[in-house]
From TrEMBL:
<comment type="similarity">
    <text>In the N-terminal section; belongs to the MIP18 family.</text>
</comment>
<keyword id="KW-0408">Iron</keyword>
<feature type="binding site">
    <location>
        <begin position="26"/>
        <end position="33"/>
    </location>
    <ligand>
        <name>ATP</name>
    </ligand>
</feature>
<dbReference type="GO" id="GO:0051539">
    <property type="term" value="F:4 iron, 4 sulfur cluster binding"/>
</dbReference>
<dbReference type="GO" id="GO:0140663">
    <property type="term" value="F:ATP-dependent FeS chaperone activity"/>
</dbReference>
<comment type="subunit">
    <text>Homodimer.</text>
</comment>
<dbReference type="GO" id="GO:0016887">
    <property type="term" value="F:ATP hydrolysis activity"/>
</dbReference>
<dbReference type="GO" id="GO:0046872">
    <property type="term" value="F:metal ion binding"/>
</dbReference>
<protein>
    <recommendedName>
        <fullName>Iron-sulfur cluster carrier protein</fullName>
    </recommendedName>
</protein>
<keyword id="KW-0547">Nucleotide-binding</keyword>
<keyword id="KW-0378">Hydrolase</keyword>
<keyword id="KW-0479">Metal-binding</keyword>
<keyword id="KW-0067">ATP-binding</keyword>
<dbReference type="GO" id="GO:0016226">
    <property type="term" value="P:iron-sulfur cluster assembly"/>
</dbReference>
<keyword id="KW-0411">Iron-sulfur</keyword>
<comment type="similarity">
    <text>In the C-terminal section; belongs to the Mrp/NBP35 ATP-binding proteins family.</text>
</comment>
<comment type="function">
    <text>Binds and transfers iron-sulfur (Fe-S) clusters to target apoproteins. Can hydrolyze ATP.</text>
</comment>
Length: 263
C-alpha cells in the first residue's frame, strides 16, 4: 500500500515461500479448530516449519488443543510465539485476561491480526494456518486483505444445514479472490463395534459443499477428506496432544494425515 505506517507482513510479500491457509467454517462446533491443529501437527511431523494463528476470537481453543500453554514473550519489538509439537502458536486468547469474553470490534480485530502476522517472530515458515472464527465476518475479510495470497480451507459436517452455511463461508472467496484449497468433512461417521458406520450427522455435506463451490468459482474444489468421529480426537484436543500424534493408527488420524499430505 506504500503507507509508511503499515507494518510489513512477510507472508504477503511477492515471492514469499510460505503457504497460508485460512481454515473457515459456516458455524461453530464443526471441528474447525481440531482440523487446524491436527493438520499443523501432521505437517510439523513431516519436517515442515508450521505456524498457527488462532483468530477465532469466540473459540480461541487452539493453544489448549495443541498444548501451547505458555504466554508469548517479547524480545525487542517482536512477539515470540510459544511452541508445541513443533508448531508455533499465537492466539488472541493469549492476550486476554483469563476467560474474559472478547468483545472487540472489527477495526481492533484487524489490528490484532495485523500484529499477529507482522510482529510475531515466525521465522521462515513453510505453512501458516489461520483458524478463523465461524461465519463470514470481519476476520475473514481482514485476513484476505492482509494476506491476499492465502488459500481457503472449508470445514463442514455431513449435515445439510451445516453444508449450506459452509457454502456461504466458502463463497466469500469470490469476493476476496482467494484460492479455495478444498473442503474437509468432519464427524462423517462413527465406527460401530461391528465395523459398520453410523452416520450420526447424515451424509453428503462435504461433497455438496465441494460441488457447489466448484460451480461458484468455476474450477474444481476438491473434497480433501472425511474424518470420522472418534472419542480419541476429542480427548487429544482436551489433553493438548493432537490425535495425529497421540493415536496415529486411528482412522481419524489417518484421514487427517492424508489431508495434510494433499495440501
Ligand atoms: P470448531 O472449531 O468448529 O468450533 P472444535 O474443533 O472446537 O470446533 O470442535 C468442537 C468439539 O468437537 C471439540 O470438543 C472437539 O474435540 C470435538 N470434535 C471435533 N471433531 C471431532 C471428531 N471427529 N470426533 C470427536 N470429537 C470431535
Amino acid at each position: 500500500r506504500g503507507d509508511a505506517d503499515e507494518p510489513v507482513i512477510p507472508f504477503a510479500q511477492p515471492g514469499s515461500l510460505t503457504r497460508v491457509f485460512c481454515v473457515a467454517s459456516g458455524k461453530g462446533g464443526v471441528g474447525k479448530s481440531s482440523v487446524t491443529v491436527n493438520l499443523a501437527a501432521a505437517m510439523a511431523r513431516r519436517g515442515m516449519k508450521v505456524g498457527v494463528v488462532d483468530a477465532d476470537i469466540y473459540g480461541h481453543s487452539v493453544p489448549r488443543m495443541i498444548g501451547a500453554a505458555d504466554r508469548p514473550t517479547k524480545i525487542e519489538n517482536m512477539i515470540m510465539p510459544p511452541q508445541s509439537h513443533g508448531v508455533k502458536v499465537i492466539s488472541i486468547g493469549m492476550f486476554t485476561d483469563g476467560n474474559t469474553p472478547v468483545v472487540w470490534r472489527g477495526p481492533m480485530l484487524h489490528r490484532a491480526l495485523q500484529q499477529f502476522l507482522a510482529d510475531v517472530f515466525w521465522g521462515d515458515l513453510d505453512v501458516l494456518l489461520l483458524d478463523l472464527p465461524p461465519g463470514t465476518g470481519d476476520v475473514a475479510i481482514s485476513t484476505a486483505q492482509l494476506v491476499p495470497n492465502a488459500e481457503l480451507l472449508v470445514v463442514t459436517t455431513p449435515q445439510q444445514a451445516a453444508a449450506e452455511v459452509a457454502e456461504r463461508a466458502g463463497s466469500i472467496s469470490t469476493q476476496t479472490r482467494q484460492r479455495l484449497a478444498g473442503v474437509v468433512e468432519n464427524m462423517s461417521w462413527m465406527e460401530m463395534p461391528d465395523g459398520s458406520r453410523n452416520e450420526i450427522f447424515g451424509s453428503g455435506g462435504g461433497q455438496i459443499v465441494a460441488d457447489s463451490l466448484s460451480r461458484t468459482v468455476g474450477t474444481t474444489v476438491p473434497l480433501l477428506g472425511q474424518i470420522p468421529l472418534d472419542v480419541a480426537l476429542r480427548e487429544g484436543g482436551d489433553a493438548g496432544t493432537p490425535i495425529v500424534l497421540g493415536k496415529p493408527e486411528s482412522a481419524a488420524a489417518q484421514a487427517l494425515d492424508a489431508i495434510a499430505e494433499k495440501l
